[in-house]
Each structure stands twice: as C-alpha cells, then as structure tokens.
Amino acid sequence: MISNNSSSTERLKSLKSLNASHPHWLLILTFGLLLFSVLASIAFGSAQISIGDAFSALVCPLTTEHSCQQQIITNKIIWEIRLPRILIALITGMGLSVAGAVLQTITRNPLADPYLFGISSGAALGAVVIMVMISSSIIGMTLGAFLGSFLAVLLMLMLAGKNAVRVERLLLSGVAVSFMLSAFTSMILYFADPNAAANLLFWMMGSFANTSWPDLIAPTFVIFPSLFIFFSMQRWLGALLAGDESAHTLGIPVNKFRLLVLLMCALMTAVLVAQSGGIGFVGLMIPHIARYLVGANIKRVLLMSCLLGGSFMIWVDVVARSVLAHQVLPIGIVTSAVGSVFFFIILRQRSHSG
Amino acid sequence: MSQSSLQQPLLSVQNLHWSAQGTSILHDISFAVSAGEFVGIIGPNGAGKSSLLRCLYRKQEADKGLITFADKDIRQYNRNQLAQKMAVVLQESPTDFDLSVLDVIKMGLIPHKSLFESDTPADHQIIQDAIKQVDLCGKENQSFNRLSGGEKQRTVIARAIVQQPQLLLMDEPTNHLDIQHQIEILQLARKLKLTVLLSIHDLNLAATFCDRLLLLNRGQQIAYGPVTEVINQTHLKQVFGVDAEIDRHPFHQGLRITYDLNAEKSCP
User: Fold this and answer.
1) ipTM for this prediction
2) Does A246 touch chain B if contact means CB atoms closer than 8 Å?
3) Which of A110, A159, B3, B97 has the highest count of CB atoms within 10 angstroms of its CB?
4) Which of A248, A229, A228, A231 is nearest to A239 (CA)?
C-alpha cells in the first residue's frame, strides 16, 4: 500500500463509518440537495435568468403582485420550457435509479440494471418499430416501448427456462436478450432512410428537450405509484438479499415476487425510454453511490437512490444544454461518460483496498 | 408412537417419499417430534438430511406421505402461517451486499407484518431481546459479511427468534465452525426452549446434545429413537462404515464414541 494513498483511504473509511452511523442526516442533506437542484437548475439555459428572478417567477401564480406582470417572458420560459424539462429529468432520474436498485436487489447482483436485462433494449426496439412503421406520437411510442420491454422480460424468462429461479441464469439470459434486441434495432436503423435514421439515433441517445406538461402525465402516473409500491415492499426486497431459500422460509413467494418486480421495472423503463430515449448507466451508478453512503439497508438505499438519482439527472441535463453553445448534447452521452469514469474510480479503489 | 401417546406430537412425518428427476432421494420416512424436544438428524453425506428438512419447510413438496404440524397437514397452512410457526436456520450464503447485523435480524419480523405495517416499539423490544439472547449486544450495526462464522450463525438464530416460532429447523448449524463455536451454537439452541430439529455431522456432539436421533442412510430411515438406541456399533458400521467403541463419557455420562482407526477396510 502506498503511504499517501493509505491516508486518503483511512479518511474515506472514517467518512464511511460516520455516514453509516448518521444515515438520517445524510438523507436530509440529500433531500436538501434535490430541492436546491430543482430551484438552481431553473436559472440555467440560453436565456439569462437569475436565481432570484427564477424564484419569483415560480411563486408568481400564487400571488397577484404587480412585479409579476413585468416579467411575463421570464415566467413563460420558466413555466413552459424549463420546469417541465426539470421535472421530467427528476422523474427519469428517480425512476431509473430505483429500478436499478431494485433489480440489483432481486438478482443479488450489484451490476444489474435495466440495460443489462435487455429491458431498455426491448423498450428502444419497440419504440423504434412504432416510429418507423406507424408514427412518432408519444402514445404509440410508449405502447411500443411497453410491448418491447415486456417481450424482453418474456424472452429472458423463456431463455432462462425452468431454471429461471436461478439468478445466474436469469442474468445471462438477460444479457443475451439485450444483445439480440439491440441487433434488431440496429438493423432497422440501417435500413431506414437517412433522415429518419438520424432522428432515431438522436432519440436513442436520450434528450429532455422540448418536454411539455402533457409529456409528464404518463411518467408521473407510472413512476410514482411504482416507487410507492417498491417502498411498501421493502421488507420483502431486503429479505431477497439474504438468498432465495432464506426468503422462502420467511413466507415470501420468491419466484412470483421476482416476476412481479421484473415486470414493474419493465413498465417503468418503458415509459421513461419512450419519453426520453436511452439513458444508460444511471440505474447502475446511482444505487452504487447510495450503498456506499448508507449501507445495504434496502429502505435507505431506495430513498437515497431516489433523491440522488433525481439530483444527478437534473445536473446532467444542465450540462447537456449548456456545454455546447446553441446545441443540446444528448443526455445518454453525458451519463455514459460520467458512468465510465465512475466505474474506473470504483475499480481503482477496489484494487487498492484488496 | 407409544412414547408420545400422552402428548400429541408437534411435528409428525408419515411415510414420506421424495424423488428428484426420477431418483428416489427420501424413501418412506416416518417420525414424530414432541413439543420441547431436541432432535438430531444424522447420516453420511447424501443421506437426505437436507432434503428432509427442505420437505418440512416446503421448499420442495413431498411426492407421497403426510407431514402434520400441530395436528394439521402443513399444506393447509399458507406461507405466512407456516413461517410464523416454523423458523429455519440455513447455512448462510455469501452476498455482495453489505447488510448490517440488525438488517438481517429484522427480517424475522416479515411473517408477522403486512406490506404497509411499520415496526412498533413492541417489535423493537422483540429484536433487542433476541440480540441479548444470542449475545450480540453492541454488534447491531456491524457488517454481517465481516462477522466470524459463529457470530453469523448467532445472527441467523436471532432472526429465527424474532420469528417467534414453535419449531426451529437447522441445517448443519455447526458446519465450518471450530469446536468451541460448535458447542456454543448447540448450547444456545438448547437454551431457546423451542422444539428443535437439526441435521448434524459430529456424532459425539449429536449424542451429547440431542434427546432423540433420526439416522438416515441413502434416503432410508435406519433408526429413530433415544440416543442410546440409535448410536450403537451395528448402526455405525452399517451406515458410516466405521468400527467404533461406545461407552459412557466420564464427565457428563452421555454416550462417547471412539473410532477404531486401525480397523481393516473391507471391500464389499
């Protein structure tokens, strides 16, 4: 062990143990970060708006103050462009992170996420098929994404066969399905006309641009009830971490429960992919950070993933729309770049600690 | 059955058969365990000890035969009811997730809780009592993965206590433990004042700690009864293929088995 490294590892360790003993403070802090993120990110964008103006625009509909009349344009920008966009980023971040945390729990594999399972690939394929063959209306795409992700889960279970109860088989067949469905998507892209292909490609890389209030309806009605259900099932989720057989002896219908959770994750992912395209690494990375901060206790991991995921996605969107002048960077590029650096750091830390 | 005619057995197994993929694993097993008894299942590797336990906690369904718990067919209990009455201590499986001791022990509440119920002060009391009983005070927030083998086993036993069962099933609870911790775990299990059915490899420990023994070999029941009836030279030779001297232990008057290491191996 190198000496200057060891002191920083020590510090990290003491920080970690401190966090483990005060998880409540950490959760409150992260909640504060989320609130701050929502408010502060309103100020970022091509039109210059100060945080103060942003805040007064937010409360305007609640007051009849005279000053509100004077900044109608600012209000319009904030209420009709920025706020829906921030909220969809928030919901997407929360949904993907919690889906990742839940999938990692039911498979007892810290590397599971909607991508690894082919759920995202299925959703993308379904949406692309609808876009190419019928129309790019959001309802059609959501339905297509939906069917695609259910197809992915179905294929995965069929491939895993009678032994779908075995977690390893489930993971491997998920990876196989993911590649298979991505291949179909690539094929469609290859044969589509160049204009449509460019559009599809941009959509697949993920973006929150041009989000309006009606776009929030489906994600809201899917993600928040799902989060609620997962939170109320946290005892069962936690018990799965100790092994299937042990969960069985506690009276949990393990296989049915796992199937239900898989389908719910498919539903969440499908809605988010249809709305915002493919956004990778979030479901993998955020639960990792959450566990690092608060330990493996499932209740805290779910809460932390929710809060962190929301904040993270909001800032990713801020970066995506401000890093290049007059152009929006696809969200998927930013999350993948951040994600790969993140895993590089984890890898280095692991090889140091043993 | 004559011994338990006064008291109805808590658990009774009649003519149990179980096979996996056409191979018979358990063949015609019948025994009964009365409330408060401490019963050991012994037999060589592959005798069907774990398979029998798995039939009892319904991880697998028996092909034939009847298992009754408190005079009711176990198939008539739903999952929760069974988990409220029967706790199982398995050989712990490794996990990548860093659960705390408290996280693991809290799982014992699951059979008593509906989905939306949160923990009550009474639950916390139950958990604290369990922690005290297994002597893990002060270790609640430690990482389960970093405990010693004995402490892990005690954590899982605490989880079983929180389940507040009538019957405790244990699958080789002394496996991979040094002798001090093997004794510690068995003493702890006896102190719980529960009906206990456990599989165990060490015959001397089985003879010392158990009230009755069930001897299995290749899925067949060879003997069931008080320790002195089950542990004898004929059985040990027939089932384990070892010659042994059996006498009374000078300290505690239990049976003592001394293996004859110089006996000639006979080819069957």
Assistant:
1) 0.90
2) yes
3) B97
4) A248
